Amino acid sequence: MTSTTAQPTPTAAATFAENPLVDGAIERIIAELRTAQSTLTGAKPAAAELASTYQDYLDRVANVKGKPALYPYVGSGMGNGPLVELADGSVKWDMIIGIGVHAFGHSDPDLIATAIRAATRDTVMQGNLQFNHDSTEFGELLLAEAGRTSNLKHLFLTNSGAMANESALKICFQKNAPASRVLAFQHCFMGRSTTMAQIGDSAGGRVGLPLNTLVDYMPFYDPKNAQRSIDYAVWHLQQYINRYPGQHACFAMELVQGEGGFNSAPREFFEPMMKLCRENNIAVWIDEIQTFGRTESMFHFEQMGLGEYVDVVTIGKMSQVCACLYTEQYAPKPGLLSGTFVGSTIGLNVGKRLLERLRDGGYYGPDGKIAKLQRAYREHAAALVKKHPEWFPSAPLELGGELAGDELYGGVGGMMRMTPFGGNKAMITRALSVMFEQGVIAFFCGHGPFHLRFLAPIGVMKPEQFGEVFEIVERSFEIVASEK
Hints:
By secondary structure, the chain is α/β, with parallel strands linked by helices. It folds into 2 domains: 119-360, 3-Layer(aba) Sandwich (Aspartate Aminotransferase, domain 2); 369-482, Aspartate Aminotransferase, domain 1 (Alpha-Beta Complex), CATH 3.90.1150.10. It is built from 15 helices and 21 strands. The chain has helices at residues 12-17, 20-37, 51-65, 97-100, 109-119, 133-146, 161-175, 194-199, 226-243, 267-279, 300-303, 345-360, 369-387, 425-438, 466-482, and strands spanning 75-80, 83-86, 91-94, 125-127, 152-158, 181-185, 214-218, 248-253, 256-257, 263-264, 283-288, 312-315, 322-327, 341-344, 395-396, 402-403, 409-412, 415-418, 440-441, 443-445, 451-455. α11 (300-303) links the parallel β11 (283-288) and β12. The longest helix is centred in the last third of the chain and has 19 residues, at 369-387.
């Protein structure tokens, strides 16, 4: 007599997902996509016959928003890695990728295939009350990477970086109640919600807002006075602790300041302050919303060797869905964190696939693809500065001193900056406009001086592609310089 074990009946979803007809249909779509995008091989100007239609698009944007778009950008819906086609037929090198969102550029076949499959699921959005397995798998991947060098154990998913930061702040306040003050670095950026705009050190970002969040600002690292700036920062932190004993819930730290100008600091700067926070029950909250995935480790705190000190971390942008990660000690009580949406089904699946590719594709480490991109950028930037020193005078710093020579370009990983025209905002803004017309999309960062900012599509860009990008940058700077 033979015994048989009954096999579980597959779900309708599993049966559909394994249907070879579905796989074949997706493969045919991707084959046609590859053919269509193969025509996009470099920057090219707009088609004259599309000018009036394109202007109509821009007028509609202005009517909807109540003001013109910052850039005359309306995408066609097609691209090829770091190249994007606009609805006027022009093709441009995208060096800002939605301010860091599109890490694999435009029309990536693998991510589009992932998105198509995700679009066949039963709902567009998933939430905290009802969800499929997608959000759990996405969270498990993040925690596995974060937990390798830290004590981060849990996370809360949300659909914006500002809400991830709001969640982090609530966790810190609850754990360290009744402490109600926040420590943050000068020139930090935390998001656009009412509270995050108050913590972020940008006066223009909080005009007209009631100031009801108690924030104490710390000096950031000064590479020209390295040890002195470290000692001064520790002394400054101790003064705040002495002045407001037991009143600080957290210290919000960007290990690389994004909007502030891609300012970075060594481990030796952060570690003594983190130790002082630990001694005084002040949560160490690392904001990695812009740095996440973009440096030589998926989490920059890992590259810096600071994981043992981290209590709360926020990530977003390139991950497609945002998250607040925290240790067991900072796990919130029931009811503190919730929300209707976790994120879209497509966002969760594409985000997970994107992170898998970054994790497994040779991107990280000192000889990884991201490090090679940064080196290639610096080589081209250095050559441009050497060739045209007249475009790169010293740039005065807000609090004294100046940037000069090889300090006029830099960054970390896929975060790249350059400081032409003495860091003058008007001239850099004009340069960005001309670059856009000529075929490169970039943005600015910093407050004084201002910098030209690249957030390169690290997943797909090749080091040699900076050649054409810098040809356009040079041509654009020449136009701007001739207008003086």
